[in-house]
Specification:
single chain; Ribosomal Protein L15, Chain: K, domain 2; Four Helix Bundle (Hemerythrin (Met), subunit A); 2 domains; four-stranded mixed beta sheet; globular
Length: about 300
């Protein structure tokens, strides 16, 4: 008898893999992508946090089922891996954590405490006292603009601001295109971690009213330590295919910085700042996507 399947912890996975112009299917029990010439390429989907599907990709029902069972998030994106169209939740989200997140977001005092913790984590200093969330958001925006300008200056790039048309991929300059591709990769990884930990991508604290508000909140905590410097460096090189170069660079940065091992503990840390007690899991809560007799001690197992 084979031993029961065990999900790979989020922190031990490869961050992202991008697929374009291929058919995703399950053949002989393996997750494969088949190109137009019929060539099969195996993808170890159980060891990947997020699979980004670009235009020209088709997914079979069996492939979607297997990705869900092993906890790999499928994201349908536009050209250059930007413009998120849809995503498939990888099963087993924790209702107790979702309710805890909602309680924090609905409590004005707790929400402000979480936002202040995010500010301190991001800028490595305590935020000004007696400021509302709107005021902190304004201060943060000004600091972000100055950081963009600083990185552009360091790389010898003429910076005209973060300006681009999401409907026209080629409308932005090189720097903006690299930034869009880089942040899209980071958002994919952050969403995979948020879902794996059992939280809701839409219930944000700084960002609100969008399907990925909480994903943006969490991704912003790591953005300027990972993908933003990379995007400006690649923009300065003026490579032939910047989007692909950025994706490969992001994958390397995520691995060397051990990003996936940091996201879920950081989520827990910033939410704990709200000061509300965590509810106990309901006995009727959804079980893990893959039954596992042993507790592996990682929130990323969808337990």
């Amino acid at each position: 008898m084979l031993p029961p399947l065990k999900p790979i912890a989020m922190k031990e996975r490869v961050s992202i893999v991008t697929v374009e112009r291929g058919q995703l299917d399950v053949l002989d029990g393996a997750f494969v992508v088949i190109d137009k010439n019929g060539v099969r390429t195996h993808i170890p989907v159980g060891g990947i946090a997020c699979l980004m599907l670009e235009p020209g990709t088709r997914v079979s029902h069996a492939a979607a089922v297997l990705a869900s069972r092993v906890g790999c998030l499928l994201i349908w994106v536009g050209e250059g891996s930007v413009r998120l169209y849809a995503s498939g939740q990888p099963g087993g989200a924790r209702a107790d954590r979702l309710l805890y997140q909602a309680r924090l977001a609905l409590d004005d005092k707790a929400r402000l405490s979480v936002v202040r913790k995010m500010y301190a984590f991001r800028f490595k200093e305590e935020p000004p006292e007696h400021r509302s969330i709107e005021q902190l958001r304004s201060i943060e925006g000004a600091r972000v603009k100055s950081l963009y300008k600083m990185f552009a200056t360091q790389n010898g790039i003429e910076w005209k601001g973060r300006k681009y048309d999401p409907k026209e991929w080629g409308s932005g300059d090189m720097a903006n295109r690299c930034l869009s591709a880089a942040t899209a990769c980071l958002y994919g990884v952050a969403e995979a971690a948020v879902l794996a930990a059992g939280y809701a991508p839409a219930i944000g604290f700084i960002h609100t009213g969008k399907p990925l508000s909480f994903v943006y909140d969490i991704a912003d905590l790591f953005k300027f330590d990972t993908v933003i410097p990379l995007a400006f460096r690649i923009a300065a090189q003026k490579v032939g295919s910047p989007e692909r170069t950025v994706r490969l660079g992001c994958r390397d940065v995520f691995r060397t910085s051990q990003l996936l091992s940091k996201i879920i503990p950081t989520i827990e840390e910033v939410l704990d700042a709200g000061g509300l007690s965590r509810p106990e899991p309901s006995p009727e809560s959804v079980p893990p996507a893959i039954p596992n007799k042993e507790q592996l001690g990682d929130a990323g197992h969808r337990g």
